[in-house]
Amino acid sequence: MNVLIYILPLACIAGGGALGFKLARAGRYAPIGVLFLAAAFGFWLCLHLAQDMQGWDGIGYAIVALLIIVPIAGGAFIGLVMGWLRRRRALNIHG
């Protein structure tokens, strides 16, 4: 169970960060915006479904929202900022 609590969110942060970094470094910001919109919709959907359920079923949707969707969006944001800074530095040095 500890693996799910620690490793899964860290893997989601790393995956989202790598995707955000790679896209920002390439200058492709529209797919990152789509990723943020998809994460926001998924978060809303999980919380909306959690409200209609009782007991552990509703808690499961809330856990998915907090341990998977939020880390992906957070990692993508961190990757976006880091990729944007690296892209800006590369363009200033070589341009």
Provide structural commentary.
With 95 residues, the chain is mainly alpha-helical. It is 91% helix and 0% strand. The radius of gyration is 16 Å and the shape is elongated. The model has no long low-confidence stretch (mean pLDDT 91).
SSE order and pairing:
Elements lengths: L1 H24 L4 H23 L3 H39 L1
How would you describe this structure in keywords?
single chain; 95 residues; mainly alpha; 3 helices; 0% strand; elongated
Short description:
The protein has three helices and no strands. By secondary structure, it is an all-alpha fold.
Give the proportion of residues in helices.
Answer: over 70%
| Low-pLDDT stretches | none
Strand content: under 5%
Biggest sheet descriptor: none
- End-to-end CA span: 50 Å
Computed over alpha carbons, the radius of gyration is 16 Å
The DSSP helix count reads 3
Q: For the residues shown, what is the average pLDDT?
A: 91
What structural class results from the helix and strand content?
mainly alpha
